[in-house]
Design brief:
With 227 residues, the chain is α/β, with parallel strands linked by helices. The chain contains 8 helices and 9 strands. The strands form 2 sheets. A 7-stranded mixed beta sheet has the order 5-4-3-6-7-9-8. Helix 6 links the parallel strand 4 and strand 5. Helix 4 runs parallel beside helix 5. The longest helix is centred in the middle third of the chain and has 13 residues. The chain is globular.
Length: 227
C-alpha cells in the first residue's frame, strides 16, 4: 500500500481526506481524516446511541489536540519518556508526542478511531514510538504507571470526570503530570476544582490555535500529582 493511501476498509466505509497539521517548529503531520464528521452524526442509529450514548467525536480533528501537540514541543519532556494518552481519536496529539521524542501508548474507546490512528502513525513513520490500544476508562485494565498522562478534549461530559480522576489516581506516578487541553468548555471548571481538592497542583496556559478557517482559544491544564 502506498504510504498515503487510505486502508481499503476505512476508505470503503468513510469519505476520507488527507490533512496537513502544523505541529512544532518545521514539523507537519499528515493525518488521514473523515472529510465531514457531521455526516456520521446524521447517520447514527438511535438504538446504537441509546445503548451507550456514543457520538463519533473521535472523527474530528480537535484544535485542542493540535494545541496539546504544540505544547509538548515547546515544553518538552525528557526524550524517551513513556506517556499514556486518553481518548486519542485519530491520533493527532499522540503522534505529535511521538514526533517530539516520547514513547506513547495511545488509547481510545472506538476501534475505528484506533484504525485511523494506527494508519496515521505509519504514514508519519512514527509507528515505532507510538502504540495503540482499546481502553474504556470506566473499566481500565492498565497494569502499570506513567510519569505523564495526556488527553485533549476529554472533559466535556461531567459523568466522565470521576472515572478519569480514578484512573489518574491508579495510573499516574507520584510526582507525575497530567496534561489536559480543552477549548474552555464550562465542564472543565468543576474538573479543575475537583483535581485541586484531590491534592493536585494546577496551572493553565491559554493558547490560540488557527486551524483551517477558525481561530480557536484553548487552555492546556497542567496537573502535578503529589510525590
Amino acid at each position: 500500500m502506498p504510504p498515503f493511501a487510505a486502508p481499503a476498509e476505512l476508505a470503503r466505509r468513510y469519505d476520507v481526506c488527507l490533512k496537513s497539521i502544523a505541529i512544532g517548529k518545521w514539523v507537519n503531520l499528515d493525518i488521514l481524516a473523515v472529510r465531514d464528521p457531521d455526516v456520521l452524526i446524521d447517520e447514527i442509529d438511535p438504538e446504537y446511541y441509546d445503548e451507550d450514548e456514543r457520538l463519533p467525536y473521535w472523527a474530528e480533528i480537535w484544535p485542542s489536540a493540535i494545541g496539546l501537540g504544540r505544547h509538548l514541543f515547546e515544553y518538552p519532556a525528557p526524550a524517551g519518556s513513556e506517556i499514556l494518552e486518553l481518548g486519542c481519536g485519530i491520533g493527532v496529539a499522540g503522534i505529535a508526542a511521538a514526533a517530539a521524542g516520547l514513547e506513547v501508548t495511545a488509547c481510545d474507546y472506538e476501534e475505528d478511531a484506533l484504525a485511523f490512528a494506527r494508519h496515521n502513525a505509519r504514514m508519519n513513520r512514527l509507528e515505532e514510538r507510538v502504540s495503540f490500544r482499546f481502553l474504556d476508562w470506566r473499566n481500565p485494565d492498565l497494569d502499570r504507571r506513567y510519569a505523564i498522562v495526556i488527553g485533549s478534549d476529554i472533559l466535556y461530559e461531567r459523568p466522565n470526570h470521576e472515572p478519569i480522576q480514578q484512573l489518574l489516581g491508579d495510573t499516574l506516578e507520584p510526582g507525575g503530570m497530567f496534561l489536559a487541553s480543552d477549548p474552555d468548555r464550562r465542564a472543565a471548571a468543576p474538573f479543575v476544582e475537583s483535581m485541586i481538592a484531590r491534592g493536585y497542583r494546577h496551572s493553565a496556559q491559554p493558547r490560540r490555535i488557527k486551524f483551517e478557517t477558525n481561530d480557536n482559544r484553548i487552555i492546556v491544564h497542567r496537573f502535578l500529582k503529589e510525590a
